[in-house]
Design a protein that fits this description.
With about 350 residues, the protein is an alpha/beta fold. It contains 12 helices and 7 strands. The chain has 3 domains: about 90 residues, 2-Layer Sandwich (Gyrase A, domain 2); about 100 residues, no CATH class; about 120 residues, Orthogonal Bundle (Isoleucyl-tRNA Synthetase, Domain 1), CATH 1.10.730. The chain is globular and about 65 Å long. It holds the Pfam family Arg_tRNA_synt_N. It comes from Streptomyces viridochromogenes (strain DSM 40736 / JCM 4977 / BCRC 1201 / Tue 494). Its EC number is 6.1.1.19.
C-alpha cells in the first residue's frame, strides 16, 4: 500500500463514520500521511483526527478512536494505534511493502508516469531567451509529458546554440502546433515560464551540474552557479542523489557475484519506513510537479529519496559467512526500486544517473 492508497483508505474511513452519524464533518479531499514522528509507531501516521476535531465538535482523541475502529475493519492493516493528542499510527501487513516494490520494478523508470498514453492537455509552453528559463521550460515539458500532456515549447528570442548542444535543451520554435491523433475535443492552456535569471553562465559546469543548479532552487529563488555543484561530498545534494543511485547498482552487481537476486518481500519497517513512504509518494510528486510547472519539487523529492535510501543500504548484503536470506533479497529489491526511482527522476530533469560514481 502506497501513502496515496493509505490516504484514500483514511478518507474512506471518514466517509463511513459520517454516513453512520458518528461524525458531522465535510470529508476533506486529502489526508496527509507521513512516517511516524517521535512517540509514534507503525509504518505511517496521519493527523486527520486533529484536522477534523474542530468541525466535528469533539476532542481529537475521540475522533481518532472513531476512525481507528473504521480502519481496523481493513484487512490490509495489522494495527492502528492512537498516540499523542490524536495521531493515528497505522501498521501495514507485511505484503504492502512487497507490492509497492514489485510495482516500481515492473514499471521501471516510468513508475509514476500515466499509463494510458495521451490523457491530458495540450500545453503551449513559452519562455524568454535566458538560459535558466530555457532549461526550466525543457524540464517542465519532460514532466508534463510524463503525465500524458502534449507540449510545445517556444522561446521568445534566439536561444544560444550551446544550451541545446551542451545542456540538452529542446525548443520548438517553428512549425504547426503538434497535436496527438485523437478524435475528441482537446483542452489547451498557455503557460509562461519565467524564473529568476541565472547570475552567471552555467555552461562551464557541464550538463548535469548546470541543469541541477538551475532546476533545484524554486523559480523565485536566485540559483547559485558555483563549483559546489561539482564537489563529490555529502554537502552537495546532486552528489547524494547520484551516489545513492550508483550504490544501489553496485549492490546489485555484488549480490550477483554472491549468487542471489532481488525479490520483493517483507522488509523491517523501523529503518525502511521513510524510504517506502518516499517511494510511494513519487507518483503524487510527479503529478504535482506537472500541475504546478515546478521541476524543483521533483529535484527536492529526489534528495528526500536519496537521504532515505542511504541508511538502508548497509544491511542489504549478508555479512561474513552469513548466507543470503529472503530478507536480503527483499532489501535488495527495495534498494533496486529506490535506484529506479532516482534514475527515472533524474532522467525527467535531463540529468544522467551513472552506474559508477
Amino acid at each position: 500500500m502506497t501513502p496515496a492508497e493509505l490516504s484514500r483508505a483514511v478518507l474512506h474511513a471518514v466517509r463511513r463514520a459520517v454516513d453512520a452519524g458518528e461524525l458531522s464533518v465535510t470529508v476533506p479531499e486529502r489526508a496527509v500521511v507521513t512516517p511516524p514522528g517521535p512517540g509514534g509507531c507503525g509504518d505511517y501516521a496521519t493527523n486527520i483526527a486533529l484536522q477534523l476535531a474542530g468541525a466535528a465538535g469533539q476532542q481529537p482523541r475521540r475522533v481518532a478512536e472513531i476512525l481507528r475502529a473504521r480502519l481496523l475493519d481493513e484487512c490490509r492493516f495489522t494495527d492502528v494505534v492512537v498516540t499523542g493528542p490524536g495521531f493515528l499510527n497505522v501498521s501495514l501487513r507485511s505484503t504492502a511493502s512487497a507490492g509497492l516494490v514489485a510495482e516500481i520494478l515492473r514499471r521501471g523508470r516510468r513508475y509514476g508516469h500515466v499509463t494510458t498514453g495521451f490523457s491530458g492537455t495540450a500545453v503551449r509552453l513559452r519562455c524568454p531567451a535566458e538560459v535558466r528559463a530555457v532549461v526550466v521550460a525543457d524540464a517542465v515539458a519532460r514532466v508534463l509529458r510524463s503525465q500524458g500532456d502534449s507540449v510545445r515549447v517556444t522561446c521568445d528570442g534566439r536561444p544560444a546554440p550551446e544550451w541545446e548542444t551542451r545542456l540538452g535543451t529542446s525548443i520548438d520554435s517553428r512549425g504547426p502546433y503538434p497535436l496527438p491523433d485523437i478524435d475528441y475535443p482537446l483542452p489547451d492552456i498557455d503557460v509562461t515560464v519565467h524564473p529568476v535569471p541565472a547570475p552567471a553562465d552555467p555552461v562551464p559546469l557541464g550538463r548535469d551540474a548546470a541543469r541541477w543548479a538551475l532546476l533545484h532552487p524554486a523559480a523565485h529563488d536566485r540559483p547559485r552557479i558555483t563549483g559546489d555543484h561539482l564537489v563529490q561530498r555529502e554537502t552537495n545534494p546532486l552528489f547524494r542523489v547520484r551516489y545513492a543511485h550508483a550504490r544501489t547498482r553496485a549492490l546489485l552487481r555484488n549480490a550477483a557475484d554472491l549468487g542471489f537476486a532481488p525479490e520483493p518481500g517483507p522488509v523491517h519497517a523501523s529503518d525502511t519506513a521513510p524510504l517506502l513512504a518516499a517511494l510511494g509518494d513519487h507518483p503524487r510528486l510527479l503529478a504535482a510537479s506537472a500541475t504546478h510547472h515546478t521541476p524543483d519539487r521533483l529535484a527536492r523529492h529526489l534528495v528526500t529519496v536519496a537521504d532515505a535510501t542511504l541508511p538502508v543500504l548497509p544491511a542489504v548484503l549478508p555479512l561474513g559467512e552469513e548466507k543470503p536470506s529472503a530478507a536480503h533479497r527483499a532489501r535488495l529489491a527495495l534498494a533496486e526500486a529506490a535506484g529506479t526511482v532516482l534514475a527515472g527522476g533524474l532522467s525527467l530533469l535531463g540529468i544522467d544517473a551513472p552506474e559508477h560514481l
